[in-house]
Amino acid sequence: MAEKFRVGLVQMSATPDPDKNLQRAVDRLHQASAKGAQIVCLPELFRTQYFCQREDAALFDLAEPIPGPTTTRLAEVAKQLRIVVVGSVFEKRAPGVYHNSAVMIDADGSLRGIYRKMHIPDDPLYYEKYYFTPGDLGFKAFDTQVGRVGTLVCWDQWYPEGARLTALQGAQVLFYPTAIGWHPDEKEQYGTAQYEAWQTIQRAHAIANGLYVCAVNRVGHEDGDIRGNKAPGKGLEFWGGSFIADPFGRVIAKASHEKEEILIGEVDSRVIEDTRRNWPFLRDRRIDSYGKITSRLID
Asked: Which CATH number fits domain 4-294: 3.40.50.620, 3.40.640.10, 3.60.110.10, 3.90.1150.10?
């Protein structure tokens, strides 16, 4: 594994056509590779508009197995460009069992592993519990041709336990493919605070664990349009703002809130080593006193 490698984040919007979105993602993988990225992460559920804005049984038809059409296409591109790809897939595991999954495809096109989203939200316009079974593979780090990396998915980013357990397996960088945005009625009052909280919690994961964190979001207004079938209501404005934070939480690259962009940043194992030597949070953990962390509440 290299001492240094370059990561790329693809901040993109989605059209009503899944096949068009897949091709646009492939085009952006080529662009990220041309910019020097050796591992590239796409946003959560990039192949469609964010369909969880409504509960509709017909939308389970969007799901596919792993391996399947999306992973096969991403694997072809990874092998062609010699890059590692982190892709988000609506996984059909079995009839009636579906997951929100992330695949790690190595630079030779092989499927290095799967992560299934562990924390599933159920909020207005984010009706994910209707579609997704909680993950059962645990938190994982994967060895790739560029380095040892981990991926979690969107709502996982609010939970320090997932970041810590992935970091303890040796991940040098955490990727968070994401689909998060503003409710139109809330943006004016809460929009800035919501984005800042989202960025702050993930920068905190970088600090607490002494590693790089890469959060990649979609951008644009969406009303859940899947081939002309729109969800009711005002939709969501996805806030973009994708970023890369170093092991002390410093933002080394950040995208806008409105535009499609490709972010590039460098992961340097020497920076991880130096940060952990001077701020040895992992060394000083009192693992003998944390047993109750598995309790829902401590009464």
From this structure: 3.60.110.10
